[in-house]
């Protein structure tokens, strides 16, 4: 048995996704001896299987959708879809799932990179098993900081029969060189709807199964109603309130059976039922974290509670599985580790966007969440097209703005429409800065723009 190599760097960062790479790189820039560890690709989910490649697919699907809107508005059009250019663009953007550029980006800043599986073996000790068959292990004992940024993995619900099938997650779909003729999507959240709509527009028949009573169950019900109407019009088959009781695979087709009687069949099955942090595999119990915890508990400076010298950033903290959240937390952590102070983390204005067509952008609390915490809620909804007549019309201009106010400021907002994610920017600022409603009402909104719907909603709240 090969004796482990022991090293005592200044800092160890487990997980080199967006947050981990940012922390490790900036500490290296500060002159620290930093070791970054990941068993997969440096850069994490976002550039290889998440944000970037999925948006290439979504953008391609949107082009197809827009071309279908030409008749009745600008003449005639004929659309013949081809998935091969999408595959080429995805492979180019991901460097064909090769992270050499990302690894070099980190090491040229002075960091050291280890590829392997990392596990906490003590309050201030990490054991890294090499990702080859050598049996080599490296023991790291950071002298100044340990940063946990191990992220999350796709979660599969405990449906009988599912585990034994070759189901897809977003990773397999993003890597697919050809689309199946039919796809069953388990989960009506952002990932399932974004990818489902995109591949439907390229000729794959998509069926969405959601156990909750509506799509996007964490967002406003108006958003669910809008997407249900748009997606079913495009040909997606959607089943909400559908609890699966079994999944089978005969070598050619998946069969999913629902408790209320539906029997759904497709060539492929995409599981998009959320993500989870594998804290047990990480060895988080050495920090006193309960075995059944879903996330690492952190304070406003990203320090893991009860674990001096340990920080956590990104999905693993349970504050939102978004790249922008990971980068925000990374900045807070770096400033804290280096003793530079600055503002602590706040989460009252976290933006999120579902990149369907139309997009659903939201920030802060929904109406239901605001009422649950006892706020004196006032709401208003305005049709998105009301402030943009003459600019767009017909299919492709559906949408709305919903504002949630309490105490004279916005505590939440939703912008659903062709540019919902962009309209969200001004709403995020308003919620973050707690801009008084009277100040917002005095704003002059350019006409004709989708932003004018914000001004229209403000007159009703």
UniProtKB/TrEMBL annotation:
EC number: 1.-.-.-
Cofactor: FAD
Protein name per its UniProtKB record: NAD(P)/FAD-dependent oxidoreductase
Pyridine nucleotide-disulphide oxidoreductase dimerisation domain location: 350-457
PANTHER family per UniProt: MERCURIC REDUCTASE (PTHR43014)
Oxidoreductase listed as a keyword: yes
UniProt key word tRNA-binding: no
Organismal lineage: Bacteria, Bacillati, Actinomycetota, Actinomycetes, Kitasatosporales
Species whose genome carries this gene: Streptacidiphilus cavernicola
């Amino acid at each position: 048995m090969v004796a482990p190599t022991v090293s005592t760097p200044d800092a160890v960062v487990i997980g080199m996704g967006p947050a981990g790479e940012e922390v490790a790189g900036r500490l290296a820039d500060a002159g620290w001896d930093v070791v970054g560890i990941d068993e997969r690709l440096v850069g994490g989910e976002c550039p290889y299987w998440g944000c970037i490649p999925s948006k290439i697919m979504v953008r391609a699907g949107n082009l197809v959708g827009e071309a279908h809107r030409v008749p009745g508005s600008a003449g005639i059009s004929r659309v013949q879809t081809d998935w091969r250019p999408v595959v080429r663009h995805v492979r180019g953007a991901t460097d064909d799932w090769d992270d050499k550029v990302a690894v070099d980006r980190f090491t040229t800043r002075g960091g050291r990179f280890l590829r392997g599986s990392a596990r906490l073996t003590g309050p201030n000790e990490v054991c890294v098993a090499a990702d080859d068959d050598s049996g080599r292990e490296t023991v790291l004992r950071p002298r100044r900081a340990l940063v946990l940024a191990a992220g999350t993995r796709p979660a599969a619900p405990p449906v009988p029969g599912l585990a034994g099938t070759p189901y897809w997650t977003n990773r397999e779909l993003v890597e697919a060189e050809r689309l199946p003729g039919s796809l069953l999507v388990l989960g009506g959240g952002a990932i399932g709807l974004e990818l489902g709509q995109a591949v439907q527009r390229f000729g794959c028949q998509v069926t969405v199964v959601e156990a909750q009573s509506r799509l996007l169950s964490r967002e406003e019900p108006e958003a669910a109603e809008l997407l249900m109407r748009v997606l079913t019009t495009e040909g997606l088959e959607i089943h909400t309130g559908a609890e699966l009781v079994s999944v089978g695979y005969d070598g050619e087709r998946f069969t999913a059976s629902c408790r209320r009687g539906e029997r759904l069949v497709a060539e492929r099955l995409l599981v998009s039922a959320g993500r989870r942090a594998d804290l047990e595999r990480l060895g988080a119990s050495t920090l006193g974290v309960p075995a059944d915890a879903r996330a690492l508990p952190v304070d406003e400076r990203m320090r893991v509670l009860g674990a001096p010298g340990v920080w956590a950033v990104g999905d693993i903290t349970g504050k939102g599985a978004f790249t922008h959240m990971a980068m925000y937390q990374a900045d807070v952590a770096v400033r804290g580790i280096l003793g530079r102070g600055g503002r602590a983390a706040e989460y009252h204005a976290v933006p999120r966007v579902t990149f369907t067509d139309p997009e659903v952008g939201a920030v802060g609390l929904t109406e239901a969440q605001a009422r649950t915490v006892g706020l004196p809620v006032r709401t208003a909804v305005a049709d998105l097209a009301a402030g943009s007549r003459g600019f767009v019309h017909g299919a492709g201009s559906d949408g709305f703005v919903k504002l949630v106010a309490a105490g004279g400021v916005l505590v939440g907002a939703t912008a659903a429409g062709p540019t919902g994610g962009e309209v969200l920017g001004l709403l995020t600022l308003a919620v973050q800065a707690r801009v008084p409603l009277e100040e917002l009402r005095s704003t002059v909104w350019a006409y004709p723009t989708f932003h004018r719907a914000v001004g229209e909603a403000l007159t009703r709240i």
